[in-house]
Amino acid sequence: xxxxxxxxxxxxxxxxxxxxxxxxTKFSEIASFMGRNPTAITPFMDDVVNYYEMIDRLVPxxxxxxxxxxxxxxxxxxxxxxxxxxxxxxxxxxxxGDYEYVIKKVDLTINSFFGKGFEIxxxxxxxxxxxxxKLPFRFHKSGxxxxxxxxxxxxxxxxxxxxEDTREILFCECKWKENVNAKKILAELKEKxxxxxxxxxxxxxxxxxxxxxxxxxxxxxxxxxxxxxxxxNLF
Length: 235
What we know:
By secondary structure, this protein is α/β, with parallel strands linked by helices. Helix content is about 45%, strand content about 20%.
């Protein structure tokens, strides 16, 4: 279906999708992966975003989409994310019957792949809790947040959710792992939150951690923890 939809430009579209699926999510990274000048791939990027609607153009949730240059791209459909990450780059191995090699490659990063899906689930959980007034405040907007710290190193926060009127913000980390050290993850999340440029010195912060399971549950004001058992009991 994709081959017939993409037509003569299929090699460009396929390579764009492969680039994004393999963690080349910035425009410049995609162009570099393709070995092309950024201006040469602009029409194809516009097509997959606006015409085929296969990828989303994201900006940090605290920034305005129309003005921000800090953009990232993600494939919407998890099936296509899987195919362009694990199948398309290894077609020659499938054709030669070397399935064991591909399985080993999948095993190396499959937890990370599931982790991205877990982040989507966690955001949906937050939205449901928000609708039921089960969070410390009602947020109006949520999404991923990223930027650079004082050393110009990139930081990423899985989910941030905020209310502009009350100046309250929630920072969330999602770990698709067992026996997560909640104290360590919370400390790291608080450190990253310092670099989020949103109502600095005038905001009230809260923190949420999701994981398969925790070594031990923290009990701290303004902090909420959810493991898989908690999620089962919620819905």
